[in-house]
């Protein structure tokens, strides 16, 4: 039963994570906090072990979806590696902070983060692109496989600061950070949305490698449960990346932002009781 629960939620996480460029942790972590811990279905779980499972899962979601996006020529490798450099120290700091959190504190802070993420998704279409960052940093021109060229840019120092914070959140709570990375790339750095999603998943893959190493070092990974996470995440990400090319993701994002808001409020209430 334990493996079936984790397999199901990792499959859902892979599909939704790759479809909208999130990474999947925002699905798996609250699901296992509720069903695994609150409902007592997987008594051995702790918040730290859930985070450990999530970061391992995101390696395979990131790898699977990145391989799919590589075929469509939408991954900006240069920006991915630059953003990755900023996130490395953040993931180590976040993993160390996560080790210090008890269950009520984890629920409280994670709930606050979920509400912030839901608000970003709710209002993301109202944000206007900011030209200043594009004109005061490194300029990038990318041509996709359809022959369309796009120009965008960002100050490298600012990208480092933003990805350090996002990496820290990822290390603390086991989320891929895509829900923060994609709006940052589109609104601040003027990335085309399809390049932002693909580059975000590439960054999720790279960051998860470091993130998982941090949580392995702190002993947060329940290896016997990883066997259920890997196939669900990999297959789900393949499906999500395929759907991303065929479907508009507006409906998925609408459902996701409402769900994150509800889960965030519930997590805060549980953390305060």
Write the layout of secondary structure elements.
Elements: H1 2-20, H2 25-38, H3 47-72, H4 77-100, H5 103-123, H6 131-135, E1 138-143, E2 149-154, H7 156-173, H8 178-188, H9 193-217, H10 223-246, H11 250-272
Antiparallel strand pairs: 1-2
Helix pairs in contact: 1-2, 1-3, 1-10, 2-3, 3-7, 3-9, 3-10, 4-7, 4-9, 5-11, 8-9
Enumerate the strands of the largest sheet in spatial order, edge to edge or round the barrel.
1-2
The N- and C-terminal alpha carbons lie at a distance of 29 Å
Question: Which residue ranges are poorly predicted, with pLDDT under 50 across at least 5 consecutive positions?
Answer: none
Structural class: mainly alpha
Described by the principal axes of the CA atoms, the overall outline is globular
Strand content: under 5%
Order of helices and strands: HHHHHHEEHHHHH
User: How many helices?
Assistant: 11
Please give the domain count: 1
Average residue-wise pLDDT: 81
- Mind summarizing the main beta sheet? 2 strands, antiparallel
InterPro entries: TM_pro_TauE-like (IPR002781), TSUP/Inactive_protease-like (IPR051598)
Protein name: Probable membrane transporter protein
Organism: Kurthia gibsonii
Subcellular location: Cell membrane; Membrane
